[in-house]
Structures are given as C-alpha cells and as structure tokens.
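Annex B. Sample input.
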Amino acid sequence: MKTQALNDEVALRIGLAVKELQGVNTSDLLKLLITIMGEPITQSKLARLRAKKVRSLGEDVFKGIDASQFEKAFALLKGRGIRQYLHPKPEFESGVFCEISGSLRVACASDRGESIDGSFAECVRFLIYQVSPDYLRLIDIREPSQKIARAERNQARASLLQDCALVYSTGIGAAAAAKAIKAGVQPITLSAANAQDALSKLQEVLAQINPPPWLVKAMGKPSLGVKLYGEV
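Annex B, continued. Sample output.
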C-alpha cells in the first residue's frame, strides 16, 4: 500500500501502536486510519481521533485484541507516553565515579538528549553531573514518577535532587523554587542549552579565586561523593 510520507513522530506513534497490538500489521492499521481521517495522517488529525470510532470501524483489524491492549495502543497513537522514545536518554557509564574535592553535584532538567530544555515541574528526567573546575562528568539520570499528584510533585522532585547543590532548568515556579531551596538545592534558570556547554561556564566560575558567595555556600554542601569546600 502506497501512502503519503509520514513525519517522524507520526511514524513512531503508529509503529509503537502496532508493536502493542500483537497480531495487527502496519498496513492494516494504516488503511484503517486513512479510511477514518484521509491522507496525510498528521498529528493534528490524530489529536481529533476518537477511540470509539476507531474500535468500531476497525472491528476486523482488532479481532482478538483485548481492551487493555487497544487502550495502550490508542494512547500511543494520540502521542501519550512517547517522549522517552522521541528523546532517548544520553549514555553514561554507570558506577564509574570518584570523589572530587571542591566539586559539586548539579542537576539539569531535560526532555531530550544531553540538553537543558525542560522545566523543573514538567521535565522527563534530571541529568546529574559532578562538576569541578577541571572535572565534568554525567554520573546519573533520574526520572521523576509521572504518577505523583500535582500537589505533591514539587516536593517529590526536590527530594529526588537533595544530594545536588544546583538545579538548572528553563523555568521553575515560586512554590517549586521554595521546595528546592528548602532541600538545599539552588535553582538556576536559563534558556535551553546543551548541558555540557552550560556547565563548562559554571566551571569557569568555579575556577575563580573568589567565586560568588552563593556558589561557595553550594560547594560546601555535604553530600555523597562531594567533599566540603576547601577540604583536601
């Protein structure tokens, strides 16, 4: 079956849905979607898609597919839960870390790759780096639970980062900032940037003879793998 070209995200959604619908082939699902919405299949058209209509018109396609499978596949077609596939985690060598005197641990709110491009409250993950004037390493990746109630989200995320001295993000609300600061984590907001580029600028500040007082205080935060500022 020849269809109009799909953009990368639409193709990913359909591929993931087919994977969930074991026994349904891609061609049959494409034919059904085109029957319902016409070509081209777009994200805006998928946003208007209704589960009841898809299930009803696709009775033959979904024969043998239980309700749970269909619901998961339909959610993927709508784009729910695909961010982790669109923007995979950066690679890092787990468990390889040595204590660095005069260093600090920094969290970066991220949605894709090794970028600081997420807000504190909504980002998919936090990239955790150990940083000193001459050392910069990604040492951990932490993914906040998406099932936590909104009212408890800020506290849960602050607790997740309590061994960090700083958290970089593209935005953080006043309530979230208060939770982070109470946990000993200083929030820093900036425009979207590559994490290593942003942290290399932090390294330059750390190398100064007299870093800003707030940074000196952050460097003195005792936490796993981080010695107090000035210790040898």
